[in-house]
Write a structure and sequence with these properties.
342 residues; alpha+beta; two-stranded parallel sheet; 11 helices; elongated
Length: 342
Amino acid sequence: MSPSSRLLGLLLVVGGFTQCSQAVLLRELLAAFQGVELALGAFYGSWLAWIGLGGALATRLSHRPHHQHLLQGGVMALPLAVLTGILLLRFARFLLQVPESEFIPLGSFLLLTATATLPGGLLLGMIFPAACRLLVQFSTNSGIVPSITSLYLVESLGALMGGVLFTFLLVESLGSWVSFALTATLMLLANLFVLPNPQERFPLRLLSALLLLVFGLLALPWPGQPLLALLESRHFQMVHPGMLRVAGVESRFGQVTLAQLGKQFSLLHDGRLGESFPDPHRARLTAAYLLAQSPSPLRILLLGGGGKRIAGRDAALSHPATHSGGRGRHRPGHAATLVARQ
């Protein structure tokens, strides 16, 4: 395989890893800031700004003869840079000392978003100009006219493939963390085959192999899965003190976690508290609202199962309208019939 083909293969995997990294970072950002839509603009604004700054910096360094080392060093450091941003967002509330019940202040929110996207965006911006210079060098040595457009097309194709695979396959079957580790492993593996001479720059290749081993282990069922589960549990205890994480599942729409506090279970959507059950207080309010529209019901239909049906039954039975046969008047011996449906 020619050096130019290897370089195109590397850019294909880099595009897929970049799209996967964006998805994981954005999920962590929305979870840290409770789904505020401003997070989308802050993320993409800072991400694209750092990419532009990295491209300008790489252009200034392009006249130096070591752009090949710049490309490979950037590819090797990219997974670590994105991982740093993910961990920074994961521990955002701990670092800023903001409790879960409060919103993070706007200034801290924007500063943290820019800081979390800085390492990955800057390196990603430096990779593409270095790859262009390297393609020119490879093509000049082989006597073929270079086509910079091919690099852009291949990277875009990799980003498209990475986004589709992450959304519809990887995140639901492996989870976001394992998907990130798997794509990082593939990118580091492709990076090992960029150098045309395997004997050159052995320390650089050894470092790439060590990083490949680390991310490869994180992508394996063991020890990667137990380690990531432990980190997830510790992070949940830190963000939601007093609650016990029972289970969690990831989908293309986000992460849903089942937690327990005493005898009550709660569903959290991307870190935000959603539904809780059983919830007798809410059931009584709902029953009062519905029974107020029909003060003298003859039959009451209860839909649902488990704790919701029990809470609804108790709330309906305790409401005065259930025992009233006339509008506003109580009939001794009359009671509404409760009909339950699963």
